[in-house]
Design goal:
- By secondary structure, this protein is an alpha/beta fold.
- The chain folds into three domains: 2-39; 45-75 and 333-399, Aspartate Aminotransferase, domain 1 (Alpha-Beta Complex), CATH 3.90.1150.10; 78-326, Type I PLP-dependent aspartate aminotransferase-like (Major domain) (Aspartate Aminotransferase, domain 2).
- The protein has 13 helices and 14 strands.
- It has a seven-stranded mixed β-sheet with strand order 2-10-9-8-7-3-4, with helices on both faces.
- It is globular.
- 38% of the residues are buried.
- Bound molecules: pyridoxal-5'-phosphate (PLP).
- Pyridoxal-5'-phosphate (PLP) is lined by residues 70, 133-135, 159, 215, 219, 247, 249, 278, 280-281, 286, 289, 291, 338.
- Pyridoxal-5'-phosphate binds at residues 70, 133-135, 159, 215, 219, 247, 249, 278, 280-281, 286, 289, 291, 338.
- Belongs to the class-I pyridoxal-phosphate-dependent aminotransferase family.
């Protein structure tokens, strides 16, 4: 490091000595840095834009009713906040590192809680990894399991990070599109109308397919995949020896008439599935960033290798708050349907109302077919929803002939 700084200094000094009259120091600096090697790693090519960063910036710069990014604008439940406060003020050692793969009381609770749901004997040390949010679990999974040239099947519309995470690992995303079945005049579209064509899905599996990313309930649609759909995906994964990365962060946000089923609970699927969850989503506290991956040791041991060599460890107190009093409490309908409502619009939404265009949840070639949908996140305070209502009413009046 010192040698590099010294080298830059000597180089600059040389340039300054040689500088002609009128050449500024800024220009010399520019010349120095223009000679630098390529900075950006090739794996970042084409993935430098992030819709969430851009839309959050725009929403903060303008005076808008923000139904764009999926986070609540109301406080998390009292019991969750109290648990966090207690974690901050109790044992001072909770300010220090805990076990690399998760705070032990939390991994134990996750193991026993999800063990019952998935019908598995889950070992807290071998089958559970606590991560920096579900994002952390996904990143770790892609890095651990996807190799140069591996194909990863992604169902569109998809939570946008699956594509860059595949690319950063050297993999090749292969998209399969869910399409809405036609509705009768006046009939409302519904998430369950959006379906995969089984023949098309099957055609995406090749000898190079390493993994399939599954997201139920789906962001942005809110679609809860049916048992029959899960069985189809499960049988294809088994037939082609493919790993299933199952993102289930919205599993507690299922609407009446639907039932969330974890694909890992289907026969033969535990051995090839990573089940990913998020306390941030379940407890309306997205900033706490506590997530996890659950799965068989044969997959988890590779995730642990990535984890111990990257973040190593997640914030202790945030983990403690989730493990408070030895139980994992799941709030009843207090959570966060980030994947609010997807609406079909012939026109752009009204000014002053921030939403997310559904096209960003599609791969580039397919975006144009879905550019007439927007996603509204409605896990917002009553006053925000009221403000949204006023905007929409005004817009409706303006559109009237
Ligand atoms: C489908 C899906 N998976 C994962 C995440 C990331 O969750 P976390 O905030 O726990 O990292 C999100 C966040 O919006 C999401 O919508």
């Amino acid at each position: 490091m010192f040698r590099n700084v010294a080298a830059i200094y000597l180089h600059l000094a040389g340039l300054l000595q040689r500088k002609k009259a009128g050449t500024s120091l800024t220009r010399c600096l520019h010349q120095t840095f223009a000679m630098a090697k390529r900075l950006q790693a090739r794996r970042l090519d084409g993935i430098d834009h992030n819709p969430w960063v851009e839309f959050s910036k725009m929403a903060s710069e303008y005076d808008v009713v923000n139904l764009g990014q999926g986070f609540p604008d109301f406080p998390p439940p009292d019991f969750a906040v109290q648990a966090f406060q207690l974690a901050l003020s109790s044992d001072f050692m909770l300010n220090q590192y805990t076990k690399a793969f998760g705070y032990p009381p939390l991994t134990e609770i996750l193991a026993s809680f999800f063990g019952k749901l998935l019908g598995q004997e889950i070992d807290p040390l071998k089958n559970v990894l606590v991560t920096v949010g579900a994002y952390g679990a996904l990143f770790t999974a892609f890095q651990a399991l996807v190799d140069e040239g591996d194909e990863v099947i992604i169902m569109e519309p998809f939570f946008d990070c699956y594509e860059p995470m595949t690319l950063m690992a050297g993999g090749r995303p292969v998209f399969v599109t869910m399409k809405p079945s036609p509705t009768q005049d006046g009939e409302l579209d519904s998430a369950s109308n959006w379906q995969l064509d089984p023949t098309e899905l099957a055609s995406k599996f090749t000898s190079r397919t390493k993994a399939l990313v599954f997201n139920t309930p789906n962001n942005p649609l809110g679609k809860v995949f049916s048992k029959a759909e899960l069985e189809l995906v499960a049988s294809l994964c088994q037939q082609h020896d493919v790993i299933c990365i199952s993102d289930e962060v919205y599993q507690w946000l299922v609407y009446d008439g639907h039932q969330h089923i974890s694909i890992a609970s289907l026969p033969g699927m535990w051995e090839r599935t990573l089940t990913i969850g998020s306390a941030g989503k379940s407890f309306s506290a997205t900033g706490w960033k506590v997530g996890w991956a659950l799965g068989p040791d044969r997959l988890m041991k590779h995730l642990r290798t990535v984890h111990q060599n990257t973040v190593y460890h997640c914030p202790t107190q945030a983990q403690v708050s989730r493990a408070h009093r030895g139980k994992l409490s799941v709030p009843q309908r207090q959570g966060l349907p980030c994947c609010g409502a997807v609406l079909r619009c012939g026109l752009p939404p009204p000014q002053g109302l921030a939403a997310i265009p559904v096209s960003i949840f599609y791969s580039m070639p397919h975006r144009k077919h879905f550019d007439h949908y927007v996603r509204f996140c409605f896990v917002k305070d009553e006053s925000t929803l009221q403000a949204m209502d006023e905007k929409l009413q005004r817009w409706k009046d303006e559109l009237r002939p």
